[in-house]
Amino acid sequence: MPNGLEIAKAAIDDFKKIQRYMMLARKENASETYAELKEEYLSLKAILQVAGVNLTDIDRIKE
């Protein structure tokens, strides 16, 4: 069973991956894809903030 640190690492990794996909979708003007990714981005961001993760250095989207 994963511990809190492993869960936080997985969420951070997912957060960073979603941001990469969002930037690609924005670059390609894929607005529907971007909107779907943004939903996931906001959920992960909320979870990480509740967990006390400082997003200053890893949040490249800033929305």
What does this structure look like?
- The radius of gyration is 12 Å and the shape is elongated.
- The longest helix is centred in the N-terminal third of the chain and has 24 residues, at 4-27.
- The protein is 70% helix and 0% strand.
- With 63 residues, it is mostly helical.
- α1 runs antiparallel to α2.
- It is built from 2 helices and no strands.
Quick structural overview:
The protein is mainly α and 63 residues long. It contains 2 helices and no strands.
Number of contiguous helices:
2
Give the biggest sheet.
none
Q: What low-confidence regions span 5 or more consecutive residues with pLDDT below 50?
A: none
User: Helix/strand-derived class?
Assistant: mainly alpha
Based on CA atoms alone, the radius of gyration comes out at 12 Å
- Report how far the terminal alpha carbons are from each other: 33 Å
Instruction: Quote the beta fraction.
Output: under 5%
> What's the count of strands?
0
